[in-house]
């Protein structure tokens, strides 16, 4: 498949995946006049798509400015402006993983139960292997027995080595995997951790310990600490990001399950939630490997409001 074709395929899937959020957000664009009542409705819709009160107010303020400055009259024009404003807020979150600085690059994944960590690790491992990277996985989710097996079976099927221990302590599984990854000249070591809730203080402290021990196996490891967020959690994601950051020092985010939610606007809230927003490395809109792709601000903003990517043309 050519790159352009692949890109088109992904954009179509992204748009389809974000359909529920899109309807929620721009369902009111029915071609009527742009007046005060319309803008107030739009603010309400943004909030209900989980963009958040503060970020919705900011977007509306910028939108009013543009309407005035550029003399925008139609809802179509306003929609394009909305897409641009959202893309501007999202752009600082665009980033790619850097594979060149560390060998192996150690990535620790964390998140609440069922966020999609193990599935995402599987998809990423395959993706990295396709890029000719040597990948090793650490099954440090020793809490849920099935998770270890899930990863082991998956590793067998895809010829990707998985390190686990019979009755392992998660920190020691991570330590072993990194040591082994160094010896074997691996490019990437991904550490899966058990799901935990921000309210489970012991488990949050354990995450900090798992992180610390990795630094003993390799200086500076883990180089990436990625929080996997379930997109269907909406605004709750902000609280999770804060708690996991405090416990484990996050370096980035992956947001899954954007296909199953009308709350996909939460990415805009996340991007506007701190002075230097966390990178969003990947987003997921489904169960297959092709449904997880790098996050691109313009693409996401266009899909969110139901426009074509280039030039903001209507569908
Ligand atoms: N629809 C949809 N489902 C997804 C996506 N990503 C993951 N899932 C599904 O989410 C479910 C939970 O995924 P897991 O990878 O087991 O979650 P986990 O975070 O490892 O779970 P714990 O180990 O219990 O913490 C699985 O059924 C996945 O197939 C996505 O982008 N879209």
Automatic annotation (TrEMBL):
Domain SRP54-type proteins GTP-binding, by residue range, is: 279-292
Q: Where in the cell is it found?
A: Cell membrane; Cytoplasm
Tell me the organism: Parasutterella excrementihominis YIT 11859
**Residues binding GTP, per UniProt:** 111-118, 192-196, 256-259
User: What superkingdom heads the lineage?
Assistant: Bacteria
**Keyword Nucleotide-binding, does the record have it?**
yes
As for what it does, the entry says:
Involved in targeting and insertion of nascent membrane proteins into the cytoplasmic membrane. Acts as a receptor for the complex formed by the signal recognition particle (SRP) and the ribosome-nascent chain (RNC). Interaction with SRP-RNC leads to the transfer of the RNC complex to the Sec translocase for insertion into the membrane, the hydrolysis of GTP by both Ffh and FtsY, and the dissociation of the SRP-FtsY complex into the individual components.
One Gene Ontology MF term: signal recognition particle binding
Q: Biological process GO terms, please? A: SRP-dependent cotranslational protein targeting to membrane
What lineage does the source organism belong to? Bacteria, Pseudomonadati, Pseudomonadota, Betaproteobacteria, Burkholderiales
Task: From the Swiss-Prot or TrEMBL record, give the protein name.
Answer: Signal recognition particle receptor FtsY
The record, for InterPro entries, names: AAA+_ATPase, P-loop_NTPase, Signal_recog_particl_SRP54_hlx, SR_rcpt_FtsY, SRP/SRP_N, SRP54_GTPase_dom, SRP54_N_sf
Keyword list (alphabetical) reads: Cell membrane, Cytoplasm, GTP-binding, Hydrolase, Membrane, Nucleotide-binding, Receptor
How would you classify this enzyme at the top EC level? hydrolase
Q: Which GO terms describe its cellular component?
A: cytoplasm; plasma membrane
Q: How does it sit in the membrane?
A: Peripheral membrane protein
Q: Which family does it belong to?
A: Belongs to the GTP-binding SRP family. FtsY subfamily.
What is said about its interaction partners and assembly?
Answer: Part of the signal recognition particle protein translocation system, which is composed of SRP and FtsY. SRP is a ribonucleoprotein composed of Ffh and a 4.5S RNA molecule.
């Amino acid at each position: 498949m050519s790159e352009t074709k692949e890109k088109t395929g992904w954009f179509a899937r992204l748009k389809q995946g974000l359909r529920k959020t899109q309807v929620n957000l721009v369902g009111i664009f029915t071609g009527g006049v742009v007046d005060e009542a319309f803008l107030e409705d739009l603010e309400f819709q943004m909030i209900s798509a989980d963009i958040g009160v503060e970020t919705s107010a900011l977007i509306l303020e910028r939108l009013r400015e543009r309407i005035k400055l550029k003399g925008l009259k139609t809802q179509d024009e306003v929609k394009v402006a909305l897409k641009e404003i959202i893309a501007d807020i999202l752009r600082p979150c665009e980033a790619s993983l850097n594979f060149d600085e560390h060998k192996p690059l150690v990535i620790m994944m964390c998140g609440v139960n069922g966020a999609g960590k193990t599935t995402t690790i599987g998809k990423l491992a395959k993706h990295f292997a396709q890029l000719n990277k040597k990948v090793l996985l650490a099954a440090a989710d020793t809490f849920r027995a099935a998770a270890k097996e899930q990863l082991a079976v998956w590793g067998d099927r895809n010829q990707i080595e998985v390190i686990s221990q019979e009755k392992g302590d998660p920190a020691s599984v991570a330590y072993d995997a990194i040591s082994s990854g160094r010896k074997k000249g691996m490019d990437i070591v991904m550490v899966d951790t058990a799901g935990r809730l921000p309210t489970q203080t012991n488990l949050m402290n354990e995450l900090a310990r798992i992180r610390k021990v990795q630094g003993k196996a390799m200086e500076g490891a883990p180089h990436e600490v990625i929080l996997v967020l379930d997109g269907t959690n909406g605004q709750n994601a902000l609280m999770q990001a804060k708690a996991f950051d405090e416990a484990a020092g996050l370096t980035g985010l992956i947001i899954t399950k954007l296909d199953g939610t009308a709350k996909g606007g939460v990415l805009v809230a996340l991007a506007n939630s701190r002075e230097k927003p966390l990178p969003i490395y990947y987003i997921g809109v489904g169960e297959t490997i092709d449904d997880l792709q790098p996050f691109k601000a313009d693409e996401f903003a266009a899909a969110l409001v139901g426009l074509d990517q280039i030039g903001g043309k209507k569908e």
